[in-house]
Amino acid sequence: PRPKALKKVLPAVASLGVDRIVLVNAARVEKSYFDSKVLNEAFVRELLLQGLEQARDTRMPEVLIRERFRPFVEDELDAVFGPEPLRLLPHPPAILSLQARDITSATRVVLAIGPDGGWVPFEAQLLEAHGFLPFSLGPRILRVETAVPVLLGQVTLLKAPAL
Predict the structure, then answer these.
(1) φ, ψ at 115 (rounded to 5°)
(2) Cα 9 to Cα 141: distance, rounded to the nearest angstrom
(3) For 5-45, what is each residue's pLDDT tens digit?
(4) Which of 27, 124, 125, 144 is the most buried (most CB within 10 A)?
(5) 77-113: per-residue pLDDT in tens?
(6) Any residues with CB less than 8 A from the CB of 61 and at least 6 apart, and which?
C-alpha cells in the first residue's frame, strides 16, 4: 500500500492477529514506495507494536517485503504459506461473496489483497492459477486501508463457531 496507508494498516493487522504479512510489488504500486522509510524494519516493528499493545497481544507478525510479484508467486508462495491454507483473492470482477466461499472449515486463510486500483488481470490470473479463489466485497471499490480491516473482520466472523 501507499506509505500513508501502510501506517494505518500495519497496526490494524497486528491487532487483528495476522501472523504473516507479505508486501509485494504489483503493477499498480509506485516503485518509489519501496524506498519509503515506512518499510524500514524498525519503523515497521513500531507500527506492529502499536497494534499488539492495543490488542494486548505479544505475537509479532512476520513481515516479508518482495519487490517482484511474479517470482514471489511462482517461486516462494508455497514455501512461505504452505499448501494447506485456504487462499482467497478479493477482486472486484468476482461474483461470489466471501460468505458463498464457505470458509468455516479452513484452519488458516491467506488473503491476496491488491494495491489501490486492484490487481491487473495478469496478476489476478496468476494468483488464481496458484489456488486463490476470487470473491467480491460488493459493489464498492475500497482503498487498501479500508479493505484490510473489512476483509479480516469478515474472515474472523465467518470462521468463528456459531454461539
Answers:
(1) -75, 175
(2) 17
(3) 999 999 999 999 999 999 999 999 998 999 999 999 999 99
(4) 124
(5) 999 999 889 999 999 889 999 989 888 888 899 999 9
(6) 13, 14, 18, 19, 20, 21, 48
**The whole model's pTM is what?**
0.93
Vertex 88: Cα angle to 86 and 92 (nearest 5): 165
Helix axes 144-159, 3-15, angle to 10 degrees: 20
- Assigned fold of 3-159: Alpha/beta knot (3.40.1280)
- Domain boundaries along the sequence of the chain: 3-159
Q: How many residues does the chain have?
A: 163
Contact of 111 with 21, CB cutoff 8 Å: no
Distance CA 163, CA 161 (A): 6
- In sign, the C-alpha dihedral spanning 97, 10, 66, 60 is negative
> How many Cβ atoms are within 10 Å of 54's Cβ, its own excluded?
13
Strand (E) or helix (H) holding 153: helix 144-159
Cell of 53: 499493545
